[in-house]
Amino acid sequence: MAERGAPLDVIAASLRRERARTGLSLSEVAKRAGIAKSTLSQLEAGSGNPSVETLWALSVVLDVPFARLVEPVRPQVQVIRADEGPTFYSERSDYVATLVASCPPNARRDIFRISAEPGTPRRSDPHMPGVVEHVVLSSGRALVGLVDEPVELAPGDYIAYPGDVAHIFQALEPGTRAVLVSEHT
Question: Three-state DSSP class for 56?
Answer without folding.
Answer: helix
